[in-house]
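To: structure desk
From: M.T.
Subject: fold request, one chain
Message: Could you run this one when you get a chance? Sequence is below, nothing fancy, just the single chain.
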Amino acid sequence: MKVFQVDWARNGYNAKSEVVISTATSKIIKTTRQFVGATPTGFPVMTEIFETKRARIKSPSDAIDLRNE
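Reply: Done. C-alpha cells follow.
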C-alpha cells in the first residue's frame, strides 16, 4: 500500500485528506477527509472504505434493478 496526503476541494468544501492505494492493484482502498471550515455532511471527518472484491458485495433482497430502466 501507498499512502498519500492531499488537499481536497469540491463545491466550496475543503479538506486535508489521506488516500490509501493498493500497490498490487492500483485501486483506492480508503480515503479519510478532515474538513476545514464547512462540511457537506455536518461531520468534521469522513472516511470511505472501498470494497475491491465484487463477490463480497451483495444487494438487498428487495433491491430494484435499474440497469434496464
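Reply (cont.): The chain is about 0% helix and 45% strand. Let me know if you need anything else for the meeting.
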